[in-house]
Amino acid sequence: MWLSWPPIAIFPLACVAFSVIFILEHVISKRQNSNTNAALFFYVYIFFIAWNAPTTWWIYYSTLPGAIAANMLNALLMSIPVLLFHVVKKRTTEATGYFSLIAFWLSFEHIHHQWEFTWPWLSLGNVFSYYPSLIQWYEYTGMFGGTLWILLLNLLFFLWIKHTFIEKSSETKKSRYKLPHPLISYLLIFVIPIGISFAIYYNYEEKGYPVDIVVVQPNVDPYGEKFIEETVDEQLERMLSLADSLSDENTDYIVFPETALPRGVWLDQIENDKHVNRIYDFLEQKYPHISLVTGISAYIRYTDVTEPPTPTARRYRSGDCCYDAFNSAVQLDTSRVLQLYHKSKLVPGVERMPYPGIFKFLAPLTIDLGGISGSLGRQDYRGVFFTEDNKGIAPVICYESVYGEHVAEYINNGANAIFIVTNDGWWDDTPGYKQHLYFSSLRAIEGRKSIARSANTGISAFINQRGDILQPTEFWEPAVIRGVIYFNDYKTFYIRYGDYISRLAILLSIMSLLFAFVKGKTKRF
Question: Are strands 261-266 and 291-301 parallel, antiparallel or unpaired?
């Protein structure tokens, strides 16, 4: 499976490799007088470790124990839908069992997008992100449509192997062609969606009106210079100089990366912050028509309280109460009316200890990658930044760009385009930052929204509404790019209805479990 993931991206492997799960279950289920549940778990866990570890090994650049734990835990979670499928198949019929795995897996991916131990990096539908021309229909299905496609293909591939090589009895030969031959079905289900996608891709025209954007990549070492107090002024001047080199009277936006202002800004005193005021001065003196979007580290101070008002609020070193820390984005312009958004999808174990209300005592164990450490606060709605002429942008911060329905909420709240601010230097020159970039293409297709992406250390780029990556910068090099992207008010089927496929799968999963329970009870009598 790992060879199918970007940047290697041999995607046809994903269309057959997952069939190993069906084969393992089929062989193990034929065993007599053995604990098939334990045996199946052992083999599928090895399979999932062999998928997770080579695909996301780069996590170890931030923490080796965290990388080991993440891969082992994710493999464990992936094993659960397979075990449920095995139980349902034993208690019902083969057909019910096979289709229940599709429902269980989609349900698992949905939950893995929603809960606080969230890690959707290996959702099956992400595998096509390197080839946007293949999945233009994501504007109707979202990423979960790709997951469903892969699962159906692997089931059909398994049925072909089963009928052709595993079962050769006369009964099987008599009955196996009652339905269309699995190989024919496989080829049809493989080719038809690709053909539809090509037709959409090569006939698609960008929707909306042109907007001129300058994207800055300052290339500040996140493990060294970035969070050193003495370098913060110089970092800002470097970014302003890069922006100035390409901006002119036609530029509408300048975009800086995540935590471009790394020194924490107290929001109740932001009008006095020297770095924010330096940006205001830059705009007022040179580009009064431009809006500048940047990432910041921010603090909210709570007054007149004796106990933490939120699960993530922390006390001052003196013991007094309290304040919250945030990974945020702001839009600054000459009106000096601050527009602010706090990152909502936080990286588990790095930016937030999952379920801090329960595990607050573990918050100090979050991994310190510089800047603000400990569990961060977040906001519950997707804020959109608007200009005076009503252009709206979605300020998507780093990890949030992996979540389709999350980004859809910005668009439903009025965003006409997506700005992604990120800092991918934590993972060094590994597949991690490349995968993160490619996943952004899925968001462009799902919403038919253009993207401007500013990364601290690469890759910065523009992404058009077909998901094509334009003007990608080099990794670990300072850079500035300028391009025209298109803003629009269009809402795709997916934007309007969200992750309906995975929600339907949850309903089917519940029905499968109830059916298996009833059948199990019936067999006892």
Answer: parallel
